[in-house]
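ARCHIVE RECORD
Type: protein–small molecule complex
Small molecule: pyridoxal-5'-phosphate
Source of inputs: curated submission
Record status: active
Notes field left blank by submitter.
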Amino acid sequence: MIKENLAKVRSTLSDGVRLVAVSKTKPVEMLQEAYDAGQRLFGENKALEMRDKHQVLPSDIEWHFIGHLQTNKVKYIAPYVSLIHSIDSLNLLQVVNKEAVKHNRVIDCLLQFHIATEETKFGLDMEEAKALLDSPEFTQLKNVRIVGLMGMATNTPNRDLIRQEFHTLHTYFDQLADTYFKGHPEFKELSMGMSHDYDIAMEEGSTLVRLGTSIFGARDYGIPVND
Ligand SMILES: *Cc1c(COP(=O)(O)O)cnc(C)c1O
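STRUCTURE (tokenized, with ligand):
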């Protein structure tokens, strides 16, 4: 089924949009199946789960961290993670930088913005993002690189609201691209869109869609994950 799902999803992707296969809670056998069908980019939201999967799966997989990241867990992903989608504080960015130094790497990161109307979602607002980017501490970080923004829309059947929120994120992206990141062509990623709303996200300019359910099927949270 995974191979068929991937083919179906790929046929719907707009030009220039990359697919992050969100494999959280799924066993490595299912990731291997997606890998065998050509998928190389996987997204996880728990550091220990990602570490365990990274250890046993092929080394040419690009691992994206997409969930809330605790500072004490950064060490489990720093040696190999290729993009962290969920930077929501200067403190977290400083810890990522510190761990990246240990491995002599530069780790690419996205700033996560809070665009949903729900209180529970993590992320920065524009004022907080500017404060972070303006801080002297930020300018000293040499082993992290901000390559774009990420956001999650409200979980709602109201597609107009979802579109509005993605549109807002795109305007934030444009504002920052024209100011703080002028002359930084690496600032080009807009991570938005999940299984139920990625069609809207692509219309609003997404470059990375994060799809779990439509590739691997519904998730079963019955088994507690140790993280
Ligand atoms: C789980 C998750 C996804 C994928 O959600 P689906 O609805 O299964 O496509 C995308 N982004 C983040 C941040 C997630 O935690």
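CURATOR ANNOTATION: The radius of gyration is 17 Å.
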